[in-house]
Structures are given as structure tokens and as C-alpha cells.
Structure prediction request, 926 residues.
Amino acid sequence: MLTYTFEKRSGVSLYEQLYRHIKEDILTGHLTAGEKLPSKRALAGHLELSVITVKNAYEQLIAEGYIYSVEKRGYFVSAVQQPLPHSACAALPRAAGERTYELDLVTNSISAEYFPFTVWSKLMRRTILDHDTGLLRPTPFHGVPELRRAIAENLQQFRGMTVDPEQIVIGAGTEVLYHLLIQLLGRDRTYAVEDPGYGKIGRIYESNQVALRRIELDEAGLSAAALRASGADVVHISPSHHYPTGIVMPIARRQELLRWADEGEGRYILEDDYDSEFRFVGRPIPTMFSTDRHQRVIYLNTFSKTIAPSIRISYMILPPHLMAEYRSRLSFYACTVSSFEQYTLAAFMAQGRYEQHINRMRNRYRQKRDAVIDAIRTGPLAGKAEIMEQDAGLHFLLRLDTPLTDEELRRAAAEKGIRLAFLSDYYHNSAAAPQHVVVVNYSGIEPETLRRGLKRLAELWED
Amino acid sequence: MLTYTFEKRSGVSLYEQLYRHIKEDILTGHLTAGEKLPSKRALAGHLELSVITVKNAYEQLIAEGYIYSVEKRGYFVSAVQQPLPHSACAALPRAAGERTYELDLVTNSISAEYFPFTVWSKLMRRTILDHDTGLLRPTPFHGVPELRRAIAENLQQFRGMTVDPEQIVIGAGTEVLYHLLIQLLGRDRTYAVEDPGYGKIGRIYESNQVALRRIELDEAGLSAAALRASGADVVHISPSHHYPTGIVMPIARRQELLRWADEGEGRYILEDDYDSEFRFVGRPIPTMFSTDRHQRVIYLNTFSKTIAPSIRISYMILPPHLMAEYRSRLSFYACTVSSFEQYTLAAFMAQGRYEQHINRMRNRYRQKRDAVIDAIRTGPLAGKAEIMEQDAGLHFLLRLDTPLTDEELRRAAAEKGIRLAFLSDYYHNSAAAPQHVVVVNYSGIEPETLRRGLKRLAELWED
Prediction:
């Protein structure tokens, strides 16, 4: 009969030990398919265990399919394979240790001290008190009504956009929304992105294996003529402030694109308005969404740029006929943002805290931008660099007067502890890319670091 | 010269009013392309405004592309289209008012009072204090290390799974993870799901337009023979507790499927372990992931079922070679869960609160389940219904002894205020579906409501 030894002080219950022993015997072939096991009572007597211990072990083995019982006949071993040896495991790669630079013009970090953390955490606590167990209920597929209403009111008040909260879909980042849009608009469409442009957008379409065209820009951005020639159905643009060129698409060009969209069935414009909040002069540029008369524009924006990258809340606004389609075909997808953060953001907006925060950020960024531009204009790079400004956004372009290629510049700067990104990095068709134009992402730069960095950068002209 | 009237007390600045007037004139054709505008000084004098007001209005019109300036010559109107009239807007559909039922056996709501809300909110506050502005930094693509470590430790301790935290990818719900998996494994693969099964999974594959096979189950679940015949490369299963049949896949069948996966290049098993925590007898069923020797199993689980549906945190565990591929091809996607909730859950797990919560829930659900089963066995349905139990999960099957079709039953029950779901609802191939089997999702049912509901349901046998 089955004979096993048991460890009384192992912390593992006797039932679990017996279960493991028998399982091991089955997997190693000591017990073979069809073999009859002792009765519970007999095995309990033999091993000096209680019948209930044996019963529990047998039941677990039955549940997992190692043995089976036949009424009035007893317990039998199932036909189970002996496991193969482990295959050699590929070593698991880790993230490469990120090199740190003294001056980093590539990463647009949000200065954490800009964030009204006290207000936000107060609102989080308030949300817990107000909503309590309501926070545990599933939310509507397109987000909690409070947040959609707050967004609609904000857009009405500050962007002059008239939006029904029912047109808004909340998602955990614009990347999640792109996936949904591809499903909504169709995988059989041809999508177009701007070249140069924010590389991630093209990568997402490629990763989803939809047909993708990259459209060259002229000085007014993407043209309807180029779009027509491409055969694209859906175009993804950021007309209020293009990254990295900073182009604000003029009204005539916007009208052209809207006309293009009206010409064919199933044509759409995805208006990615990602940093329109940071315009430093005049009033915000009106959106294409509000100019659109034929339900051809889908508007996208995110709170990751204005609040914090770790706050994963974005939204899109669908024209009514697309929202109806979304509701019938895609509302089975659960909303990807937890209700807790949705309620907190809704309160932050409804109390006017969001607009206050944006205004404060805008002022601080403007000051920082002015300081950075001043340091470049009056520092050791004066006469060697031309600033190409657009009064908006968290970056600007800087053309360097140098015979070095972008790669030579990048390497030489890196040796001096300075990290540079070039306009040419954002071109898919790099032959068309202008050289020596640096994209300055300034939001995380400290003035002292900048001064030291510029001094070292200027050495490149002396070497 | 341009002549406009201004509202002094409208709350709209003079600059904004002037901008609107000129824009309107351009859009209505009163000002035409190429027309020269008055100089700032001349217009200011004529309208009795300050020069700076006119300058600001002109600059905004330039920024938006309505006018342009030519050095030393002045300001000119751009070529801009007159807008077309609004197209008739499709009425925006609203959610149909959800019918409420007195007894709802379809929705598995989590009783909110089961959730340790005090602990959770304490941990949220603690997270704010501990991480402070660190909460505003972007997180690694696969989630914060603290949470991945806590998950790995929990799986080691309670499921006997040895997992490197670097193998874990956190996402805002399993639906987000499915999208990533399709991109990782490839759109050219053929995917298989269980029939019957949780309908949403098939819908997601269909919505992503990948080749999909629905595999009929036998009494042990999905078979390798059926899978081979289907030509699928990737199979999505829930072996520890199938919904809605409750089948626990026996070890022999699991081994068969693992062998199937080893036979061909690019074959994978997606093990969806969504409610394995709620097994009421014995120990948890070991996962296929831990039995797998050849890196063929991807493990998925979610906290939405165990904590709350509005907590959007799920994870997947990739075998090392797939994780390496994920890192090189898909790590450009940002993590979809906010760092705040990740840290809170990490602390909840690290302090043992999660396991405590699961144990408490398991006991409460067992009690509720026993009460529900007892009410059915001893109530007015006795003799008219057979309970098909599996000792696990938040649902069980109930076969009704009736000549009515499922649709007739559903309608008749609805008239009595009772909402029923049938096993046949979960079959894609409904011809193969057993009739009269009700899926009882019991977690949200109150005993008194159930007794009243059963009484009314029993009337169907009297009518």
C-alpha cells in the first residue's frame, strides 16, 4: 500500500502533503493509469491519518483530474502524462540602465512642484467620503457622467466648443482611444499621419497593421492635395500646435481638409489637441471640431500633459452618428479608467481648480520659456543659433549654424553630457529632413544647468 | 473703413470683439481674399480703440490664418472659404433606460459592504504621503515595480507559481491586455475561444478582425483534438473554472493542450484565471502556467473580480522569450493604470490585506451560495429544478424541468420581475446548446428577494 512520510512541523497540512505525495507518484509513473487506489479508510489506517484527511486529498486530486471515482468501486488513477524536463529559459532582459545627462533637452518632464498636490489629495479624500462604496460599482462604458459633464462645460467655457457629454468617451490614455478608433472606423481604411510628427502615433497604427501613409508637411502643415494623392481615408493631425515643428494650421488649410473629408464616404479627421492649453499669446486657436459642419472631425485630448503623465485619463469626442455606432458596436468594452480617479478629476474641474492649474502652469512655462530663450540669445550660442518660435507649447526649434551632421552633433553633445533631439529624428523620410535643427523641450530645464550646458555646447564651435 | 459697434458691458474684451467682427466679415465674404486691412493706427483711431487692442486682434487673426502681414505693406485678408450651413445632426442616442428586476440572476454584482473600504482609503492616503510628487512621474511600461513584486509574491505564496516581476505586464483591464496580446502574437494567427464561453472574449477578437474559431467543449472542456482540427494557433481558455459551465479542466486535458502547443511554432495558450480565487473546497487548482515547461502559456488575471469592477487593474505574465519580444516591440505603449492606484494596490497586497480580503469574500460567498442553493432545494422549485454544482466561482447552473423554450421562460420570468440568463445564451452555435439550464449568478442576491422570486417563478408550473 502507498507509504509516505509526513513532516509534522513543515507548516504544510497533512492533507496537502498527502495530496502532493500521490500527485508526485502519478506524475513520475509510480502510480499508473487505471490503478486502483486504497479506500479512504484503508489508507487512513495505514498512514495513521484521519479519514477526513484522506478524503480531502482524494477530492483535491479528483478536482484536478489526477484520479477519478467510480461509484461502489473506488478510486482510480487517471491517464496522465509524465512531465518533460524544463526547456532552457531565455534569460529575461532588464531595462538597460538609462544614461543620465546633465542637460536633457529631449525629455519634457513636468515639474512636480507645479502640481496642486494638496488640492488633489483633498479631493481624493473628499471623493472617498462622497462616493464611498459607489466607487466599487462599474462605470458606464464611456466614463462617469460627472466627468463627461465637467469636460463638456470646460470645453464650452474655454474653447467655445458645444459638446453633449454623451459624445465623450473617457479612456486610459490616447493610445487606448486610438485602438478603439481603429475598431470604430475600420481596419480596412487607410490612415495618414504627419511627417514629421510624433513618432508614437505612426508606430501605433503600424503595430495594429492598418494601412498607413506618412504625409509630408509644407509650411502650413498637412495639405489636402497631399492627402488626396495618398489615398488615405482617415487623417490624424494636431492642427493647433504641431509637434515638433510648432505649426499652427491656418484657417484656409483647415477648410481645405474639412472639404476633403466631405468629398468621400468614410473620411474622417482625428484632431489631436494634445497641448493646445499652452498657448502663450492671444486666445486659444479654435478647434477644427467646432468648425466642422458635417460630423467629420473626431476630437482627442488628454490630461496626462496638463496634470501628470501618470494620470492616465484622456478623452475623445465623437460626432453624433459615430457615437451612435460606437454605442451599438463597441460599448461592450468597459471604461478603462477607475471611477475613483474619474470622480476626483471631475471635482477638480467642476471647482474651477483645473483651469486655475492650467493658468498657473501657462504662466510658469511662459516664464521658463522666456528665460531659456533669453539664455540662448544672450549666451555663448549667440550668433551660432537661431530660435524658431511659435508662442505655444512646451518646445521650440533651434537652428544651429554648424557644418556637423545631426549624428555628429548628437554624439559630440552627448560626450559633454548634453542630450539633444533633432527635427530630423521626427521625419520618417529622413532625406527630406532639415539638418541642425534642435527640438528644445524646455519644461524640465533649470536655468543654471542650462547656462552650464550652453557653455559646453558652444565649445563645439571652438574644437 | 471697417465700422463695428462694441458692447462695453458684455464681459467680452474689446480685442476679442474686434477679432470676432473681422473674422465674421471674412467668413461671410464682406472682406475678400487679398483685400488690404486698415493699419493698426488708422483702425484704432476710427473705432476709438487703443492701438494695442487692434494689434492683439490682428495677431490672433494672423495666428489662425485669417489674415497675413507683408512687411512694410500692411495686413491682407487670406483666401478663406465661407462656411457651409450645418448639416442636420443625427439625434444623439442615449442609453435605453435599463429595466430593473426584482430578482436579477444575470448580474454578478459585488456586495459593496464586502470591500474593506476603510483599509483601502487609509492606504490611498498613505500612498499620497509616501509617494507625494513621485505619483506624477510616468511609470514603467509594464507597471510600477512595487506592484509587480507584490503580485509575484502573492502568486508564489498562494498559487505556487514562480514568476519574475519582470515578466508581469500591468494593464487597465484584461480587455486592454488582449489588444496588446494580439499585437504581440500577431494578427496573422488564428485565435480560438471556448463555445460556450464568456461572449465578450470572442467579441474582442472579432472586433479586432483576427481569424477566430469557436471550439465546442466536451465534459472536460476544450480538447486538443478539436483544437488541432480548427487550425488555430492561439487558444484562449479558463481551465481553472470555465464560465458558464464551471468545468475544471482535468490534468490529462491540460497536458494534451500543452503538448498541442509544443507541436507547432507560434502556438500559445492564454490561460484566463479570472475567478480562480473563489474555490470553496480544497486548495486552488494549479495553473497551466506553472505546469508549462516550454514557455507556451500566457497567464492573465484581474483585480476587477476580486476587489471591484471599477478598479481597472489586470495583469498578464509572459514567458521570458515573449517578454523579450514585448519589450523590444511594444514597450513604447505607456502603462494604462495610474501610478496612484498601482501603489495603493501594491501596499494592499504587501500588507497581506488582499489575501485577507479574498478569504473573507470566499467565506461570505460560500455562505451566500449555500443559502441560495438551500432556498432552491427546499423551496417551491424543489422537484422542478436540478442544481449542477462545481464548488467554485460566483455562479452555478440550474436545470429546470419544463417544456417551455428558453425564450418562453425568459419572457415569462421577466413578466414576473425576474431576470434569467440561460446556458444557451453563451453558445455561439446555439443548435448545440442544452435547453432550460439557467446560469445563476448569485453574488448580488438577497435571501428574502430570492424567496419571493422563487415563489413567483414556481407559478410558471401552475399556469
Chain A has three domains: 14-77, 103-108+356-462, 117-351.
